[in-house]
Design brief:
The structure is a single chain. The chain is α/β, with parallel strands linked by helices. 44% of the residues lie in helices and 11% in strands. The chain contains 19 helices and twelve strands. The strands form five sheets. Strands 1-2-3 form a three-stranded parallel beta sheet, covered by helices on one side. A three-stranded antiparallel beta sheet has the order 4-5-8. It is elongated. GO terms for molecular function: ATP binding; glutamate-tRNA ligase activity; tRNA binding; zinc ion binding.
Length: 469
């Protein structure tokens, strides 16, 4: 061989190898999460490889979303990103070695002839496949080479026997070699094809475990045969079941799947997304909510599910809400800052405490940011709630409370005492006074404890809102 291929290592080496032919969605990114987790759980390496040989459909924008989405989720790679288009010389060198070893041959069958062959096979209820017209065998006379036709290169698939592997998800899989025709591994212009490039990459990068979607199962026997032709043992395979959308269809861009980065923009926490995605095809007993550290401590390939998992946005929001509640106030304040910036909020030292007061009521950072904005921006009360609660009958009591808040110490206990004094003087019950105050201060009657809300608000703003009611 023109370059020695790396021998497999005892150290775990996994990879994520997306094609940048569209934005990456949750179904795709789960195929990054598991190999990343397995590498981290076993002290191994995680490699990012961009399979960009489809020049017509590959875009830099799609590459950017892959990198952005993985960075947001904290799926850090140890090597890469490697781009297949930058490795063409390497593929062609290995291809030349295969040709020299007699594993590859030129095929001059035109697309028209191939289409006609398939039509005949289908009419005879046979499986459409290349019939080996140009495959050289002992004693066989090949057709005359047509003038001006550039051939494709086909891999001589073994005849007879089976390709078998012990899949870490699906168990033992056996495919008869006679079911596989001779794969095209280089186009007429000499560009190598997907199944060949993948094998060379996995050998050169010493990949020990290939964890990918089960839409690749049909590629696996072909790739194993190429590994063996190159004198290498294939990696361990784990083919993950499909992720379905909420309608029970395969998750895809055509079926309305969103880019991973859309969930970032909608206010989901990366650790919550990792938690949710992990459960779409893997489990640790009945544990639903867990940290990233717990996930990595528990993760192995033995508990990957065999059944398709279905995406459920309501469940994702619930998981996100649990992570919001569990997060420390100071850390949560950092996460919510970008969403506050979009609202024009410049926060201050009150922010962590406000996060702590409202996080139990929120399922996304966007919802939390909207609550927080009431402490920094002008509030427009809900019209229906204002009409219901801020009545002419209660306005004198609001003025009484405003006067008491002018002079009381600004802490929760003193504010609570001022509210009680106002209730005694006006003869109102707590809901009769608290509801209109909440509407004026926060824009809605449904808020946490009134004394806690007022304490975190600015005294001058509160007094002005109560007096101008």
């Amino acid at each position: 061989m023109t370059q020695s291929l790396s021998s497999s290592s005892a150290r775990t080496r996994t990879r994520f190898a997306p094609s940048p032919t569209g934005f990456i969605h949750l179904g795709n990114i789960r195929s990054a999460l598991y190999p990343w987790a397995f590498a981290r759980a076993t002290g191994g390496d995680f490699i990012l490889r961009i399979e960009d040989t489809d020049l017509d459909r590959s875009t830099q924008a799609s590459v950017d979303v892959i990198i952005e989405g993985m960075a947001w989720l904290g799926l850090d790679h140890d090597e890469g990103p490697f781009y297949q288009m930058q490795r063409m010389d390497r593929y062609k060198a290995v291809l030349a070695d295969l040709i020299a070893a007699g594993h590859v041959y030129p095929c001059y069958m035109s697309m028209e002839a191939l289409d006609a062959l398939r039509e005949r096979q289908m009419a005879n209820k046979e499986k459409p496949r290349y019939d080996g017209t140009w495959r050289p065998t002992e004693g066989k006379t090949l057709p005359a080479i047509p003038e001006g036709v550039k051939p494709v290169l086909r891999f001589k698939n073994p005849i007879g026997g089976v390709v078998a592997w012990d899949d870490k998800v699906k168990g033992c899989i056996e495919i008869s070699n006679d079911e596989l025709d001779d794969l095209v591994i280089a186009r007429p212009d000499g560009t190598p094809t997907y199944n060949f490039c993948v094998v060379v990459d996995d050998i050169d990068m010493a990949i020990t475990h290939v964890i990918r979607g089960d839409d690749h199962v049909n590629n696996t026997p072909r790739q194993i045969n190429i590994f063996k032709a190159l004198g290498k043992e294939p990696p361990i395979y784990a083919h993950l079941p499909t992720v379905l959308n909420e309608q029970g269809e395969k998750m895809s861009k055509r079926n309305g799947a969103k880019a991973v980065t859309a969930y970032r923009d909608e206010g989901y926490l990366p650790d919550a997304m990792v938690n949710y995605l992990a459960r779409l095809g893997w489990s640790h007993g009945d544990d639903e909510i867990f940290s990233r550290a717990q996930f990595l401590a528990w993760f192995n390939l033995d508990h990957l599910g065999r059944s398709a998992a279905q995406f459920d946005e309501a469940k994702l929001k619930w998981v996100n809400a649990q992570h919001l509640k569990a997060m420390g106030d100071a850390e949560l304040a950092q996460h919510v800052q970008p969403f506050l910036a979009k609202l024009g909020v410049v926060a201050d030292e009150r922010l962590p405490s406000i996060c702590g007061l409202f996080k139990d009521r929120c399922d996304t950072l966007v919802v939390l940011a909207n609550w927080i904005s009431a402490f920094y921006l002008d509030v427009v009360p809900n019209a229906e709630e204002k009409a219901q609660h801020v009545t002419d009958a209660v306005k004198p009591a609001l003025a009484v409370l405003a006067d008491k808040l002018v002079s009381c110490a600004w802490d929760k206990a003193s504010i609570a005492a001022a509210i009680k004094e106002a209730l005694v003087e006006t003869g109102l019950k707590m809901p009769q006074l608290a509801m209109p105050v909440r509407v004026l201060v926060m824009g809605t009657a449904q808020t946490p404890s009134l004394d806690a809300v007022l304490f975190l608000s600015q005294r001058e703003k509160i007094i002005a809102r109560l007096k101008n009611a």
